[in-house]
Specification:
mainly alpha; MetI-like fold; 13 helices; globular
């Protein structure tokens, strides 16, 4: 008996004994199914949500600038000129002591108003040209598309510069010039959509049943063609912000000292060596707004493709 016990003790010591009982690992409880879906959606659309928040903030600047910056954008304190960004002045001060952040916030009104006007002009005029060209065809289509080809052959900024030189200075003239330069893009997209919808069976049936052509265009063709054009408008919004700011930088916008995003960068270019924030920080605001508009526009385009 003692020999058997001794042998069992030796086997256990050498690893030949019965295997130890393993306890199953503790599994953390999984979150609720709805919570997982919400978390996954936030991970996928974090950039999209951030872009929407940036654009909403820019709209807030334009609609109620005094809520975000209560100071006077035109009055400065000479004793505080060229101060670096700090808790008192988030974007620093300019060469006559005006708060740059306050001027950026108040400048959003003119810059975004001009941008919206430019996109509105391009959207309405380009959609009308594309609708008539694609629906009626023939000689009218050929003439309108040749005009659109001429507009597309000229760089948009160069065309805007030529138009605003002819029209004169001012925010409205800048918006008109930028809007005209964007018409061709909207006309092309609308025409391609109209040609696609025009060949649909329900449109052919409407024409065959005797419905007037303008009624068919309004009820059937236009209603099923505008979605990609609105997605393009979101993309072109960012380009319009950049074009309006560029013309303002060149001095074609509002008369100083009225703040505009482009003119703010122009005012600080002579102080790059000593006050980099006068150009860098307003420029970053423009970059963030343009990239956010592009992100939302591409998201709308992908949704339309699906």
């Amino acid at each position: 008996m003692s020999d058997i016990l001794t042998r069992e003790l030796i086997e256990e010591a050498e690893g030949f004994g019965p295997p130890p009982v393993e306890t199953p690992p503790t599994v953390a409880p999984r979150p609720h199914g709805r919570g997982r879906r919400v978390a996954a959606w936030w991970r996928r659309n974090l950039v999209l949500v951030a872009s929407a928040a940036v654009l909403l903030g820019a709209v807030g600047f334009a609609v109620a600038p005094s809520v975000f910056a209560s100071g006077d954008p035109l009055v400065g304190v000479p004793a505080q000129k060229l101060q670096a960004p700090s808790a008192a002045h988030w974007f620093g001060t300019d060469n006559i002591g005006r708060d740059v952040y306050t001027r950026v916030v108040h400048g959003a009104g003119l810059s975004l108003t001009a941008t919206l006007l430019a996109v509105g002009i391009a959207l309405v005029a380009g959609s009308l040209i594309g609708l008539l060209s694609g629906a009626l065809g023939g000689t009218l289509d050929a003439v309108l598309m040749r005009i659109v080809d001429v507009l597309l052959s000229i760089p948009a900024l160069l065309l805007s510069l030529a138009l605003v030189t002819a029209l004169g200075f001012g925010t409205v003239n800048v918006a008109i010039a930028v809007g005209v330069s964007l018409i061709a893009n909207f006309a092309r997209v609308m025409r391609s959509e109209v040609l696609r919808v025009r060949r649909s069976l329900y449109v052919e049936a409407a024409f065959a049943s005797g419905v007037r052509w303008h009624t068919v265009l309004r009820r059937h063709v236009l209603r099923n063609s505008y979605a990609p054009v609105f997605a393009l408008a979101a993309v072109e919004f960012g380009m319009a912000v950049l074009a309006v700011s560029s013309l303002s930088f060149l001095g074609f916008g509002a008369v100083p000292p009225t703040p505009e995003w482009g003119s703010l960068i122009s005012e600080g270019r002579n102080y790059l060596a000593t006050a980099w924030w006068m150009t860098t920080l307003p420029g970053l605001v423009i970059v963030v707004v343009v990239l956010s508009a592009h992100r939302l526009g591409h998201a709308l385009e992908q949704r339309e493709v699906r």
